[in-house]
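Data availability (excerpt). All sequences and predicted C-alpha cell strings are deposited with the supplementary files. A representative entry, FAD-dependent monooxygenase, is shown inline so that the format can be inspected without opening the archive.
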Amino acid sequence: MMKHAVVIVGGGPTGLMLAAELALARIDVAVVERRKDQSVTGARAGGLHARTIEVLDQRGVAERFLSAGTVMQITGFAMVMLDISDFPTRHAYGLALAQEGIERVLAAWVDELAVPIYRERDVIDFTQDDAGVDVQLSDGSAIRAQYLVGCDGGRSIVRKKAGIEFPGWDPSLSYLIAECQAAEEPAWGIRRDERGVNGLAKLDDGKRMRILVNGPPVIRQSEETPTLDELRAALVGVWGTDFGVHNVTFISRFSDMTRQAAAYRERRVLLAGDAAHVHSPAGGQGLNIGVQDAVNLGWKLAQVVNGTSPENLLDTYQAERHPIGARVLKLTMAQTAIMRGDERTLAMHERLAELLQMDEPRQHTAAMMSGLGIRYDLGEGHPLLGRRMPDLDLEMDHDGSSKRVFTLLHHARPVLIHFGEPGVLDTAAPWKDRVQRVGARYTGAWELPALGAVDAPKAVLIRPDGYVAWIGDSTGKGLREALTNWFGRPGEERAEPLS
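C-alpha cell line:
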C-alpha cells in the first residue's frame, strides 16, 4: 500500500494549488486525478480575479500566469463591468486566461515541487480511523494517508462517501454551451429572453463560433453529453433558426444549481473548491474561490500534519471559508435573477447599472467580486485585522535594501514585521523556527480597497495566506496569544487545543 501524509482527490486548479501549498511546507502530498493530462473538455473558467493573482504573487509565480494570458478589466456584476484600476494593489485588473492554460501553468509548478500525480485513476471508496484514511483507487491500488482532501468537483465522490450533506437550491435554468461551425452568418452578440442571457460569439480563427443558449431547468444534470439536436432546438427557441450548425468541437451543459457543503470537514476528510460549493458561473467566481480555499487550508493542514498545531486549527478553515462561500452563492443567485430579460427585470437591471457607476457602490461590489475585500472575522480592532496585507515596498532595517511584502511570503511561512518597535521581535523569539521576524520602514499611505487610508500599525503578524492575524502597538499586547493560536505553542509545547 502506498503512503502519503495528504492525498488530494482532483487535479484541477483547487487541487493543484493545495498540492503546491503543502509541498512548500514540505508535506508529503500526492494527487489522484482521473484525466491523463490537464486537457479541459468544454468551456470552463476564463480567468483570474485580482486577489487570486495576488495569491499567486505571494508565492512568486504570478508572472507565469500573466505571461500566458491577457491583462484586462474583467470584474463585473450582472454584466455591468466594474473598473478596479483605482484600487490600491499592484494587480488592479483581472487576467483573461482559459482554465486549461491556468491548469497547465499550475501543473508545471507542482511538477517542479516534485508532487506525484496518480493519473487516470478514480477514488472509489475510503475508510477513516483515528490515525488516517485508507483510500481505494479504481486500478485496484490503495493509499494510506493521514488526511484526504476532496477537490473533485460538484459531484464529489469524497463528499458523498464522507456523508456530508449538500443543501441548497435546485436549478432555475440550464445552459448549453458549444463551439461549432455554422452555415449561416448569425447576428453576433447577446440576446436576452425571459429566462436569461444567450450569446453568439465568433472565435479567433474566424471559422467557428461559441454558443451560449439557455433552456428549461434540468433538475438532475445528466452525465451524458447533450446532443446536436438539443442544441439546434435550443437555438430555434431563441433565434428562430439553428444557423445550420455543424462540426461541433464540444458541447456541454451547466445550470445555476446552487449548493454548499454543510461541513467542510468530517474528521480526517476535508473539502475544497467545487466539492464544497457549486453555483452559477456568473461573475467568474468558481475557480477563484477554489484556489483561495486551497491557500486558506494549505498552511493549516501542514501545521497539523507536522505537529506544530493541534487538529482543531482545521476548524478555522470552515469558520473562515464557509461564510465566503455562502456569500458567493448569494451573489451568483442575485446575478442570475437580475439577468432575466422580462421588462420588469430589465428595468431593475438599468437602475442597478446606474448605481454601479457611482464610486461607493462600485468599489464595494468590486471589492467583493475581485476578492480584494475579503475579511475574516478575527475580532475587533484595526481595519487591517483579518484582511489581506497590502504589498508594500519595505526598506529593510538590517541592510537598507528594498523588499516587497509579498516576497516575504514566497515560501508560505508567516511573517512578523515591526515598524520601529523591535521589542515585538523578542516576544516572538520562541517561534523563530516557524515565524520570520523582520524590522522595516515604510513611509507611504496604508490603503485598503473600498476602505481607503488606514492608520499605519506599529507591527503586523501576517499568516502564510497573506491575511493579517495581529496588529501591534508599542506594548506588543496580544502577540503571544496570536502566535500560539495560529502557529502552535513554542518549543515542545505542541498540539494542545486552541483557546
